Amino acid sequence: MPDVMLIVVGLVALFLGGDALVRGAARLASSFGMSPTVVALTVVAFGTSVPELLVSVNAAQRGASVLALGNVIGSNIANIGLILGLAAIISPIAVEWRLIRREIPLLAFVSVVVFVLALDGQISALEGFLMVLGFVAFTLYSYGLAWRERRRIEPEIEEYNALEGITPPVAVKRPREFARLALGIVLLGFGAQWTVEGATGIARALGMSELVIGLTLVAFGTSLPELASTLMAAWRKENDIVVGSIIGSNIANLLAILGVAALVQPVPVAQGALTFQLPVMLGFTLLLAPFLLDRVIQRREGAVLLAGYVGFILISFFG
Alpha helix locations (H) across the chain? Predict the structure, then answer.
């Protein structure tokens, strides 16, 4: 019972902390003139991945690196199968061409690279360092594109607003948003610690592998910020944020979160992860390609993604 209570309280803290962090980070980024797509790919994506980061690092420090790997794999599967599937069922999602042309192929490439690195049964500290460098390069590249785009279109936007008599939006109160950001980080830190303690306790008590616990319960818990922000964006038909945050979050999980965990302690890769979980994660990622041929994820395609996720969970528990 204490372990169950730790997980419940931890998941609540993760959800509230993730929401506060995403709101604060997104508003701060918008106040600096960044586009919704870039905000989703970088700030929102990394913000919603902070629970995965804290849980994975906490697990690595406790010598439970298998839980860290399961958390990353399970979160990426949940982001596409559960979250993107539910969002498409709520409302068909139109996908921006730049995401189809650049970021989605990049996610597929990164997923394949991580799978190849795992074939020797371990993600080493050196490999983790290179993965973190890759994430830094991706972030700088995204911001570089955003800066060039802003410089190109900002004069046109100002001219249009002047002609139409459109007043600029109310300025964001940055100190308040920084405080919201800090509160989110604190809540995420406590939530991560409680969730890992409770999950590892249950895994040992029931004789279940920590990989399965990480793939399912912990992965779902740390995906709650993505779930909340994505479903709200889908309800409001903010398609740039829906897909951009999922793609960016999955890239952050593979490069930043798994990379940092490997830096703390090399991450062992079980045979089951090589033969089942990692191929499933790669399959969900590659499945996006045919679904995006018409640049829209339809409701029936969302239902396929959701059904695939449910099947994955059932096989993980009972297979």
Answer: 2-31, 36-39, 45-61, 65-77, 85-90, 97-98, 104-118, 125-164, 174-206, 210-213, 219-222, 224-235, 239-252, 258-264, 271-272, 278-291, 299-318
- Answer yes or no: are the C-beta atoms of 149 and 266 closer than 8 Å: no
Each residue's pLDDT tens digit, 103-155: 889 999 999 999 999 999 999 999 999 999 999 998 888 777 766 665 554 55
What single letter denotes the amino acid at residue 191? Answer: G
- Looking at CATH, the fold of the domain delimited by 2-318 is given as A middle domain of Talin 1 (1.20.1420)
Please report, for the chain, the start and end positions of each structural domain, with discontinuous segments joined by +: 2-318
Residue 206 burial by CB count (10 A; 0-12/13-18/19+): exposed, middle or buried? exposed
Q: Give 224-256 pLDDT, tens digit per residue.
A: 766 766 776 677 666 666 777 788 889 988 999
Grouping H, G, I as helix, E, B as strand and the rest as coil, residue 280 is helix
Looking at residue 147, its amino acid is W
C-alpha distances (whole Å) from 167 to each of 47, 157, 172, 174, 222 are 30, 12, 15, 20, 39
Global confidence as pTM: 0.77
Distance CA 88, CA 300 (A): 8
